[in-house]
Amino acid sequence: MELNCPIPITQYKQVLLAHGGGGKLSEQLISKLFLPQFNNPLLNQEHDGAIIDFNGTRLAFSTDSYVVQPLFFPGGDIGELAVNGTVNDLACCGARALYLSLGFIIEEGFSMDELWQITQSIKRAADHAGVQIVTGDTKVVDKGKGDKIFINTSGIGLIDNHVNISSSKLKPGDDIIINGNIADHGITIMLQRAELQFDNEIKSDTAPLNEMVQSVLEISENIHMMRDPTRGGLASSLNEITKKANLGIELYEDKIPIAENVKNACELLGLDPLHIANEGKILFFVDPDDTQKVLAKMKNQKYGEKSCIIGKVVEKDPGYVRMKTTIGSTRIVDMISGEQLPRIC
Amino acid sequence: MELNCPIPITQYKQVLLAHGGGGKLSEQLISKLFLPQFNNPLLNQEHDGAIIDFNGTRLAFSTDSYVVQPLFFPGGDIGELAVNGTVNDLACCGARALYLSLGFIIEEGFSMDELWQITQSIKRAADHAGVQIVTGDTKVVDKGKGDKIFINTSGIGLIDNHVNISSSKLKPGDDIIINGNIADHGITIMLQRAELQFDNEIKSDTAPLNEMVQSVLEISENIHMMRDPTRGGLASSLNEITKKANLGIELYEDKIPIAENVKNACELLGLDPLHIANEGKILFFVDPDDTQKVLAKMKNQKYGEKSCIIGKVVEKDPGYVRMKTTIGSTRIVDMISGEQLPRIC
Lengths: 345, 345
Hints:
With 345 residues, chain A is α+β, with helices and mostly antiparallel strands. The first copy, chain A, has nine helices and 14 strands. In chain A, strand 5 (95-107), helix 4 (112-129) and strand 6 (132-141) form a beta-alpha-beta unit.
């Protein structure tokens, strides 16, 4: 047992919002404080969940708490987010999400009617994703000690025998495919919070991706890795991956899909869309032999119509994400270090 | 889809603390709002968790959020509670707890040092209970929108082939055994909150009960049901059981174990110890043929030395818990309807 807190507390005596933001400080908290403490092979897989073998039946197990503010936003609400987010984390482990738990932490005085709306939304999202809510818990905290409602969902999914997803399979040359436009969710929440009536068409991309993932895994055994670029955006997810795999990533700026109105909102707000949170987006790292097959399959799916190749894994500059910009130069894409917007999910 | 909220909102337009207190209002929220909405056979088992069959491998899956205040108290802290609580919920399903997830919701400004203390406590408790933390999530909410730290743990446990625990097996004549003194945890928290220096010896009974449960399940196939009487105390747990099973329960007041100082604290505070939360306590409902064998086994265990029979299941007055008092009369023991003390766990 260490006698001193491993986070340099002279630097951070208190938890900052950025420690939950998905960027550098989140990464520090996890890698310095949590992982060494709980150190075990299942945790150290560092998937979006743990993969557990029960007598040959492989299950994925994942958890996420949802604290998004506001609770209701264009394109979704906290309930839908809580279902889709955990379903997608399981999908990134290669698992078919089957069962979810539901933990509510409600602030005293929260509207019973809004609780009921959220409950209905959870049910609709669960039905849409084909998962069941099988167990739950409700806690109520005193007024002023919470913020309306926080939701935890944990989930169990089944991994088919032929599926083998692992960051250790990542290799130079792998193509990186995304299933559509980036930054929709984050910009939606930001505009709501800023009460900016920017564009009614901008809405969250929250969606369950399990069906698309399964359909791709059925036609290709060369999906090396998957990741959903949520908190911290595309930049943080890709940086994490390069650092763990000790490989580089090259992005093609002109290929990264983004809606015109979302791009304009980013420019107006002075934000880099690569740092903005996504919800219904997933990155596939695919052996180039299978890229076209996978891309064709994805484009056939409801949540994959705009799928495209946005970059590739390279040997050069391990630990770094470089982007070929539209003007022909190359720039380093770094993880966000502070907190762009708290409580995005 | 119903068009109106099924909770009579003219009566409860807002969520009250008592909706999370484990008593009548909690029961109403669950039975009227959540269960009908998510209705499915696994949820409807209404165990402390769901029991799921994967090709013959039976797993239990459970979730709980911990919002206890204060975070540190005599006998334990929120971290230890979060591990033991979920381990015990799995134990009540007849499962060996194996894997836990860990979801933190931290308030901005929370002390990094306390976070580290809690992390260490979780690790110690997990080691003590023989479970692994395999996946996690950290969210940070703005200052004033949380209360230091809330923790969700969800867990997966394995149910041995010979084990078959179900409320449907409960029958008249079953003995009810408890593994020790009641009301320790709730009174500890109450005295802390009231800042009463009542008695330094009163401390939380938080403990992992999985080892004791497994040892009992190994020697008896006639354990019909188990339940940990946490929020709402012994009275709420037993009332829930009688109502679901449509059977009665008879309690023997003079047999219910309670420490003298805890009893005195209850009298001083005007509280019924049957309504006070327990943590490291479990109720076994046992076929009388096996009662003595089970009792002997329990008394041999670290957390079962004070085990004793406190009542039995009866046909009379289905849906009610009656208690033979020490003065020879009989009284109805009802579920608590309001909220005795919020955030007990």
